Amino acid sequence: MIAAEQGTNTDKNHLSLQKGNDAKVDDVMRAMPHALGPEKSILSSMLQNPHEHISTAIEEKLSKQHFYLPAHGIVFEVLLEFFEKGQEVELVSLVQKLIDKGLLESVGGPAALTELYSYAPNAGHFSSHLNFVKDKFTLRSIINSCNEAIAHAFESPEDVPQLLDSVETAVLAIRENSEVNRAVTINSAVREVMEYFAALCNKEVKSQGYMTGYEELDRMCSGLKPGEMFIIAARPSMGKTSFMMNIVEHICIDQQKPAMVFSCEMSTFQIVQRLVFSRARYKLSDIGRGLMPQKKDLINIKRASDEIANSKLFIDDTPGITINDLRAKARRKKRDEDIQLIAVDYLQLLRSLSKQAVNSREREIAEISAGLKALAKELGIPIIVLAQLNRGPESRTGGTPRMSDLRESGSIEQDADLIGLLYRSAYYAEDEEKRQEEEGKAELLLAKNRNGETGPVPLTFIAPLMRFESGAPAQEPAG
Predict the structure, then answer these.
(1) Best CA proximity match to 386, nearest among 227, 250, 266
(2) Could you tell me the CA-to-CA distances from 301 to 277, 296, 310, 447 in Å, in that order?
(3) Taking the CA of residue 112 as centre, how many other CA atoms within 13 Å lie in the half-sphere pointing to its CB?
(4) Which pTM does this prediction carry?
(5) Which domains are assigned to the chain?
(6) Helix or strand (DSSP H, E) at 54
(7) Which has the closest alpha carbon to 389: 441, 439, 348?
(8) CA 23, CA 17: separation in Å to the nearest integer?
(9) Do residues 240 and 346 touch, judged by C-beta distance below 8 A?
(10) Measuring CA to CA, which residue among 217, 186, 218, 225 is closest to residue 200?
(11) DSSP structure class, residue 83
């Protein structure tokens, strides 16, 4: 009896397992998402009114890959070829072109084309049918990307962070490819150009990018533009973090644009502390000297802290963050908060875990630099990146930096759209008298500007506030 029961249970288990396996097989054998009717309707409308509908398909970034049925993709490609060459699109010519290409039988012969021509008597549904086809293609793309990710994951790759980054990039690329950049009318484009011209004539603050708050720098580069990478390089103790945060403050708080700062060197507490008291123009060192803040100081500190607290400034102080992790976090912040600026402090403290970068520091820096530039283009926002200079300035009289002083430069010079070399002459003064004479003087040498002029940007450095301001320090009257 027991043996019989065991046998029965075994049969049931086997049957249950078989059903489970069948279900899995069914899942695997399921057809990919598709919409054959809308595909035929689109092609039929193109044949009947090619000038209107083929041009619309081009604007909508429709391609051969959007069609699930290969025969439909072939027909679309030939129709596109006719349109691009300015040739008349009609059924007889289409049949002949397919014969010449040896593809007529692949699309089902003349009968299939005749049926396709008459399939959509009403072309009024073209847009909705086109959206059906694009949506199904998006679903297929998601499935294919996920399947590829699963296959690579089962292979147990050594470079897991790189795999994660590539998977995320592939998924985000699906969204990017599915979106259409609508062309503006020439009327609105001309109006925008004339408004910009009028603003220039009236000396109004208007730029193609985000203004940094430094007039001469903004004049030379027309602001920080989407997709640009701005390298700010300097020797230690020159104030490059302060300069970067001054720009972030101006864009994020004054212009109210969401921004994200990746700080590999300073903690969030240190950054916010410096930001609050710099914005309030209060010397925190006064407390150490026994000078308590006055009522006006407290008002300024409260105002500054409220402005910063209410801003959309996000700070990540993960030490030694990898370029893949940085890009992943930036993508999520762009998606969730629509950040408009990224600042990185600093490039040489980032890491790349790819196998190629393990044995070559120059290769690692090159990958990080290229990764940051690619991120700026991908997200369509400017990225400010701090970088260290080597000891070259110390070997020259006056300490003036050069672009060749970039440490482990690799591809930094090539990838950057803007390179500014921050420099304070007092740091290299030979004696105390000279140091006092040069105190407060600073300069950003714009050594590279892909879309504008280069040259010096005079600045004033207020050391107790860790703050840079536009223009050279005011000269005290003699006598």
Answers:
(1) 266
(2) 7, 9, 14, 37
(3) 15
(4) 0.61
(5) 36-178 (1.10.860.10), 210-470 (3.40.50.300)
(6) helix 50-59
(7) 348
(8) 10
(9) yes
(10) 218
(11) H
Instruction: Return the SS3 of 71.
Output: helix
pLDDT in tens, the chain (479 residues): 334 434 444 444 443 434 444 444 344 457 889 888 898 888 888 888 887 788 778 777 788 889 998 999 999 888 888 877 777 888 888 888 889 889 888 888 888 888 888 887 676 788 889 888 988 998 988 888 888 888 888 887 777 877 887 787 787 777 666 655 444 456 666 776 677 677 767 766 445 689 998 989 988 988 899 999 999 998 888 889 999 999 999 999 999 999 999 988 888 888 888 889 889 888 887 777 778 888 898 998 899 989 999 999 999 888 888 887 788 788 888 888 999 999 998 788 888 766 666 677 778 888 888 889 989 998 999 999 998 888 777 777 777 888 878 766 667 888 889 999 998 887 777 777 777 777 888 889 998 998 888 899 999 998 888 889 988 776 554 44
Contact present, 408 and 260 (Cβ < 8 Å): no
Q: Specify which residues 345 forms β-bridges with.
A: 263
User: DSSP label at 183?
Assistant: P
Tokens 């790759």 correspond to 157
Sign of the torsion formed by the C-alpha atoms of 139, 140, 146 and 147: positive
List the structure tokens of 32.
């990919």
DSSP assigned state of 294: P
Q: Which two tokens stand for residue 276?
A: 């609050």
